[in-house]
Design a protein that fits this description.
single chain, mainly alpha, two-stranded antiparallel ribbon, 5 helices, globular
């Protein structure tokens, strides 16, 4: 007997498939949530879960450096509001970096970040607020110098930060908000 597009045989197959799925899916979800229940969890105890902690380098390349560059590019495009927005994001990224890695090279990293960046970030905030091009350039360079002094102190002197040159690789369009 045919009812609709399915034959009686295909309906029983469908019912069996749905029954199997109703058992397998919750069971799989339960096993995936258990620490150590999947391949690659060797060395992790049943009371410990595997979490990803980005390295300092990952955080610098993925969050700090792009925001630093975006501040520069925003001001060059005359988008002071976006520069202020990214400065807030940069401060937040430095805070997350310090919380994620409280010690580096036997040094309290949070304190190091705060002592090295506080004045340059405050000066940059003031320059952006005043929309002062000359003040901005000086404050931006001071922040770059502060970054470089930290790189030197942590034996990463090969990393030198400065004013962006050349075209941006970003798809971000500056100075177009609200138009």
């Amino acid at each position: 007997m045919k009812i609709g597009p399915f034959s009686a045989v295909s309906k029983s197959s469908l019912a069996l498939g749905l029954l199997s799925a109703s058992i397998v899916i919750p069971l799989t979800a339960t096993l995936v949530r258990l620490p150590g229940a999947h391949a690659g969890a060797a060395g992790i105890s049943s009371t410990q879960s595997a979490t990803y902690l980005p390295s300092i380098s990952d955080m610098m390349i993925g969050t700090i450096q792009p925001r630093h560059e975006r501040i520069w590019r925003a001001v060059q495009a005359g988008d002071w509001d976006f520069a202020a927005y990214e400065l807030g994001n940069l401060r937040g990224a430095f805070g997350r970096l310090g919380r994620a890695h409280p010690m580096e090279e036997n040094t309290p990293f949070t304190d190091m970040i705060e002592s090295v960046t506080k004045k340059p970030l405050d000066d940059l905030k003031d320059a952006i607020h005043r929309r002062g091009d000359a003040d901005f350039g000086k404050a931006y360079d001071e922040l770059s110098d502060a970054c470089n002094s930290c790189h030197q102190a942590l034996n990463h002197g090969t990393i030198v930060i400065g004013r962006p040159t050349g075209a941006s690789q970003s798809d971000l369009i500056l100075g177009k908000a609200g138009r």
